[in-house]
Structure formats: structure tokens, C-alpha cells
Specification:
Order of helices and strands: EEEEHHHHHHHHHHHE
Distance between the termini: 36 Å
Helix content: 55-70%
Number of helices: 11
Strand content: 5-15%
Shape: globular
Structural class: alpha+beta
Length: about 325
């Protein structure tokens, strides 16, 4: 099966898809229509050859995808807020005014920034702090194995709890729709909800797999960095120093993990690769759910728009002015 350069993510009542030159976000609104926002996209590493080298391009892509992900989530969030305001206006018998609201954008951007900071504290700092109680600071390998195990356990528990809430369940269904539509495209199948539904919702290039690969790669990278620090200074790093070192190496870890993820996509039929990506696929049984035909329709709308297919099979698509 080919590994084509297309990926995406679930958003609020929709899906974002990214191809090599275009980003499209499709969102279902209460009246049944699908809003599609499309924009040109060219990664920094593809525009500048000096940046298109292993590890570095992965770190750059990681940052770019983080920014794009936040922006598309904000777009879907703004749509959700507008629809809620429309319903409120209808209940009150008033006229809804569709106009830009900077306050909403600032609130969404602030929420995203707070979520990132909180995520770093919970999944990055706390595992290091807990590991310090095991008195293995002098053994870099054991310390980072424990920290990595704590980090993975916390992450799995976190997404499992999220899966219990209906709002997140719908996002996980759109996540499944994203994977199924991409599989249909990779298999040169017809891009219809009926055909996409036949494919699996578990994909080896998913960001969930990326997080697991990051965690495993981080254990090795941080064990080496802690060992080097201990040899150089004669003592293991204290908690805050260790956190600063690990955090500063995050771009390297993200870049290396990105290369491993791309490699797993190209060699997904290899027995060793299939064994290594199995944990990520198991985890996707939590982060994805079986989508409805309507949700697959939204994912296909985003996919077709990202690929520049102008004759969409979905007649209810309308593109808002950005």
C-alpha cells in the first residue's frame, strides 16, 4: 500500500486535511451543510533545501503542525460559537449578526496556549518529579525508563477518561472518519462514505502513534543527555536542571520521532515495523471510534478539498471567505 503525503486531524464537528500544497478544514453545521475552508500550504522544509534534512525537517514539521492544528481548532471553535449564538438569538426572537469577534479569537488562542502549557507541566514535568522519588537519579537509563512509563500511563489514562465524554466521543468518531477516508484514498478506492466505511480506522501514521514513538525515542535520547551531563559535571542533574535539558532537546526528539514515523509509514508491511507500530494502533482503539456516514462525508469533503478535487461529490459544500 502506498504512503501518500496526506494527513489530518479531527476538529470540532469536522476534519482538517493537509496535502503537500493545501490545507482544508470541513465542518458540519446544524442546518446540515458542510463549511469548507481551504488555504494554500507549503512547508518550510520544502521551500528551503537547507531545512530539508533529517531531524531538522521533522522538528520544523512538528512546530508547523502544532500551529496549523491550533488554527484549525480555533476555526471549528469559532463556527461552534457562532452556531450557538444563532440558536440563542432564535430562542430570544432577535436577529443574529454575523460579524468578526476578536474576543472569541483571543479566548480560543488563550485557551490553546494554556492547554499547551498545562500539557507540558502534566506530561513533561510531573513524570520527572515522580521519578525523583525512586532514588535512581544516578542511573540515567532507569530514571528515564521510569519517567517514560509514568508519562505513557498518564497519557493513556487521560485519553481513556476523555473517551467517556460524549463531546470527545464525537471528535474521536471524526478521527476515525479521517483515517478511513485517507485509507480509501491510499488504496485508490472510490471516495464515497460507503466505500470509506469499509476501511479500518487504525492508521500507522496517526499522531497517536507519533506520541508513542516520541515517548520511546525520548527515553533513549534523555538517557544519553543525562549520562553526558553526569560525566561532565560529576553528578546527576537536579530536577529543574533535568527538566530544562529535556525540554531544550524536545525539537531533536520530535524531529527524530518524525523520521521514525515516516519510515514506519513506508515500511508498514515489514514484520518488524508492524510489531513496533502495534502499540500505536492499539491506542487508536481509544482515540478513534466508528464514524457515521455523515461524518465520513465531512472527512471526504476535507480530503477532496485538500487534494484540489473541484468536482466534489458533496453538493452541500460552501467555502466561506477567510
Amino acid at each position: 500500500m502506498p504512503d501518500l503525503n496526506v494527513g489530518g486531524q479531527a476538529v470540532i464537528e469536522g476534519v482538517m486535511m493537509r496535502s503537500s500544497d493545501r490545507i482544508a478544514t470541513a465542518v458540519r453545521v446544524p442546518d446540515g451543510q458542510i463549511l469548507v475552508k481551504t488555504e494554500d500550504y507549503k512547508s518550510l522544509s520544502s521551500r528551503h533545501k537547507l531545512l530539508n534534512i533529517p531531524i531538522l525537517r521533522g522538528a520544523i514539521t512538528f512546530v508547523e503542525m502544532l500551529i496549523i492544528g491550533i488554527r484549525t481548532l480555533n476555526f471549528s471553535g469559532e463556527i461552534a460559537i457562532k452556531e450557538a449564538e444563532k440558536e440563542e438569538a432564535e430562542k430570544n426572537g432577535t436577529t443574529y449578526e454575523d460579524k468578526p469577534r476578536k474576543a472569541n479569537s483571543i479566548m480560543l488562542a488563550g485557551s490553546a496556549f494554556f492547554a499547551i502549557a498545562l500539557g507540558i507541566f502534566i506530561f513533561f514535568f510531573i513524570p520527572l518529579a515522580i521519578s525523583s522519588f525512586f532514588n535512581v537519579e544516578k542511573n540515567a537509563v532507569w530514571f528515564n525508563l521510569i519517567a517514560g512509563a509514568i508519562r505513557l500511563t498518564m497519557f493513556v489514562a487521560y485519553i481513556w477518561v476523555l473517551s467517556l465524554f460524549n463531546d470527545f466521543k464525537r471528535i474521536f468518531q471524526y478521527h476515525g472518519a479521517e483515517h478511513k477516508s485517507i485509507y480509501a484514498y491510499e488504496m485508490s478506492d472510490e471516495l464515497t462514505p460507503e466505500r470509506a466505511a469499509c476501511h479500518t480506522r487504525l492508521h500507522p501514521r496517526c499522531g497517536t502513534s507519533f506520541i508513542l514513538i516520541v515517548a520511546l525515542f525520548a527515553i533513549m535520547a534523555y538517557a544519553v543527555s543525562d549520562t553526558i551531563y553526569t560525566i561532565y559535571t560529576g553528578q546527576p542533574p537536579v530536577l529543574l536542571t533535568r527538566f530544562a535539558i529535556h525540554f531544550s532537546l524536545l525539537p531533536f526528539v520530535a524531529g527524530g520521532s518524525y523520521e521514525l514515523l515516516k519510515l514506519s509509514g513506508r515500511t508498514r508491511e515489514n514484520k518488524l515495523t508492524r510489531l513496533l507500530i502495534s502499540p500505536g494502533l492499539w491506542l487508536q482503539k481509544i482515540t478513534t471510534d466508528e464514524p457515521s456516514m455523515d461524518q465520513l462525508e465531512v472527512a471526504i469533503a476535507a480530503l477532496e478539498a485538500s487534494l484540489g478535487i473541484t468536482e466534489s461529490r458533496i453538493t452541500s459544500v460552501r467555502t466561506p471567505v477567510s
